[in-house]
Every structure is written in structure tokens, then in C-alpha cells.
Amino acid sequence: MAAEIPEGLAIEQIWVAEASYGPDVADRRGPVRRKHLARIGELRAAGVIVEAGAFSDMSGSLILLRAPSEKAARAILEADAYWQAGVWTGFRIRAFGHVVRTEDVLSD
After folding, report:
1. CA separation for the pair 92, 68 (Å, rounded)
2. Quick one: which of 27, 19, 29 has its CA closest to 87?
3. In 3D, which of 91, 98, 94, 96 has the Cα closest to residue 18?
């Protein structure tokens, strides 16, 4: 399989989480949004969050993150203000092969 990957590229294993919003998201999101976004910014600066954002139809969020396991990814998400305040009502977490330049691969 390594022979299939062009020189200069690598497949980094990350996690993709789709978080669902509850029906009362309009009421719950506002009071904790600043705290949530600040934490997303911190995790992004630390290299944990690759991308994060909300769907424009207000059905949920998509978060791409680096973690050693699905359990660790879930713990990161459950520590978020959106989970704790009930903005997010559930997650679907899946392993994802993130195509990156070899010089962008983070090492432990």
C-alpha cells in the first residue's frame, strides 16, 4: 500500500466526528458559544483540531481531530462546552485517512 502513495505525501490517521444538535440548539448554543470557540481555537493551535465548523442548516458540527484512539477522541469532545451544555446531543466518530504532505505529519 505504501507504494501507492506518491512521494512527498502521507496518510495521517485522524478522527472525524459528526456531532448532532438537539432541537433546542438556538436556546442552548448562545450562552456557551464563546467558551466552545475559544477551546476549539486552543486545540487547533495545539494541533489537536484539524478543522471544525457547523453545518449551515444548524443540524450539527463536523470536527476533524488528532487523537490516539476513538476513546481519546470522544473524551476530547465530551470535555467541550457544547457537549456539557447539551448543544451536541450525540456523536458519530470514524477513523479517517487524512492526506498530508510528509513534512506536515505531526510526530509524537
Report:
1. 17
2. 29
3. 91
pLDDT in tens, 58-99: 999 999 999 999 999 999 999 999 999 999 999 999 999 887
Predicted TM-score of the model (pTM): 0.85
Distance, CA of 89 to CA of 100 (rounded, Å): 31
- Ramachandran class of 86: left when φ > 0, alpha when ψ lies in -120 to 50, beta otherwise: left
Which CATH architecture fits 2-103?
A: 2-Layer Sandwich (3.30)
Q: How far is CA 84 from the centre of its chain?
A: 16
